[in-house]
Design goal:
heterodimer; A: 179 residues; B: 149 residues; mainly alpha; 6 helices
């Protein structure tokens, strides 16, 4: 039994996959989190780029949104893990799934790069005469990252495994070979 | 009547691999922008974030983004619908979604706007914010369930 198969065979994951109601409800929760908490990410990025919430300081926006972004992220990840693990066999060969996972790793890299210089130095950014380039870079790259993650997430549903060559057409073909 | 004359197989959306998922991605990004910015006002009304700003100020700054998101969503949505109108029209979840969407948009530009732009009592603000979140979640849920029911 493959790893993917054994993951999705775990009792409650099998029930989840086969449930006509729970599965779409988990998907709905995942998507609602994107709609509700995604806006917080979007607006933080826009603030760093100087395009939105300009009447509020960067400190205010980053500080006030932080806890909700974290809560939203946790719910979203939990739902995502449930969705992927209950159909592990379908997800593991899917290139879009791995693209999405790699981009999520890059979100961690993004945090490691910018946490100290941007997200934890917002007062310094607010004191600067103009928004520093590093803050704009953090906002722009976060925007691109999350939009790519959203896109890859949607594309997961469109990928189909390459069809295994079936025996019958070959047989038919050989039957037509002139002797 | 126009439905009888319309053949979805002639729709360019159904004749290439990329336009449909691309439209869906645009649709999801659009509603993330609109619902997300409405939700920021709702969080304020609920007293959960941005407590140092008046809801009216926050609404004023979010409204243009909400509108941009709504426009993106209301262009991409009907295009997605055009790929298979009869399927959508007969789909219970789709009808629910349209009802919820209509309610949510009307609510957003009437009660929600009124309460957010005045100094309403915290109690009223909380109820209005919670209803707004629930309405928009129903729209998202209706949309997702189209694929299941």
């Amino acid at each position: 039994m493959s790893i993917a198969e054994s993951i999705q065979s775990i009792g409650f994951l099998t029930q989840l996959r086969e449930s006509a109601l729970v599965y779409p409800i988990i998907m709905t929760t995942h998507l609602s989190c994107i709609a509700i908490f995604g806006g917080l990410i979007l607006m933080t990025d826009m603030r760093l780029l100087g395009l939105a919430l300009r009447s509020r300081s960067v400190t205010d926006v980053v500080g006030q949104f932080r806890i909700w972004k974290r809560i939203g992220f946790c719910v979203m990840i939990t739902m995502g893990v449930l969705l992927a693990s209950c159909e592990a066999e379908k997800y593991t060969p899917n290139p879009y799934f791995w693209a999405k996972m790699s981009l999520l790793v890059l979100v961690g890299v993004h945090a490691a790069i910018f946490r100290k210089s941007v997200y934890n130095s917002t007062e310094e950014i607010d004191r600067a005469p103009a928004i520093p380039a590093r803050a704009k870079l953090a906002g722009a790259s976060s925007l691109i990252l999350w939009l790519s993650i959203l896109s890859m997430g949607r594309l997961i549903g469109y990928w189909e495994p390459p069809k295994v060559t079936q025996a019958s057409p070959t047989v038919t073909a050989t039957a037509h070979v002139p002797r | 009547m126009f439905m009888l004359a319309y053949d979805p197989t002639t729709n360019p959306l159904n004749n290439n691999e990329w336009s449909f998922p691309l439209l869906e991605i645009i649709h999801i990004s659009g509603f993330t922008l609109s619902i997300g910015t409405i939700a920021i006002v709702d969080f304020r009304l609920l007293g959960l974030a941005m407590k140092y700003v008046k809801p009216a100020q926050l609404l004023k700054e979010m409204a243009p983004w909400t509108l941009v998101g709504l426009v993106i969503m209301l262009i991409s949505g009907p295009l997605i619908f055009s790929s298979d109108p009869l399927m959508y029209l007969y789909n219970e979840s789709f009808r629910f979604k349209m009802g919820a969407l209509l309610l949510a948009i009307i609510y957003n530009y009437t009660i929600h706007r009124m309460v957010a732009s005045r100094d309403s009592s915290p109690g009223v603000a909380k109820v209005v914010g919670a209803i707004s979140l629930l309405l928009w979640i129903s729209v998202v849920a209706g949309g997702l369930f189209i694929a299941f029911y």
